[in-house]
Task: structure prediction
Amino acid sequence: MAEKKPPHRPLKMTPDTIQKLETAFLMGCTDMEACFAAGITKPTLYKYCDKNPGYTERKETLKKRPVYLARGVIVDALIDHDVHTAHKVLERHDGTKAVLAGDANNPLRISASIVAAELDEVEASRLYKEMLHQEK
Result:
């Protein structure tokens, strides 16, 4: 009589599980969050990565999608001449912000420095337009 084999545990890393993981990674989830969404443990994910070396790189690439999308939104805002976004980009780029200053008696001046008091977007836009008008 043939010897009975012990029952196998069901596979944890099914195509459905991998799809759930990848959906979570596309949202920028951490490994722990993605594992929660897929119903597996982190050790299960890491064992899968060990057996499938290319998957580690894939999951890290998928996690970067929200940053890529955010950059696209920022570029779209800059194309639309959004002054607030432009200021934020400059601020993040080099820690400085273009400051517009002047009044009816003094010519408009532009300086780039760390801002002590921030202008609101409407005032910055108005001053920028005045500066352009004076250059003509």
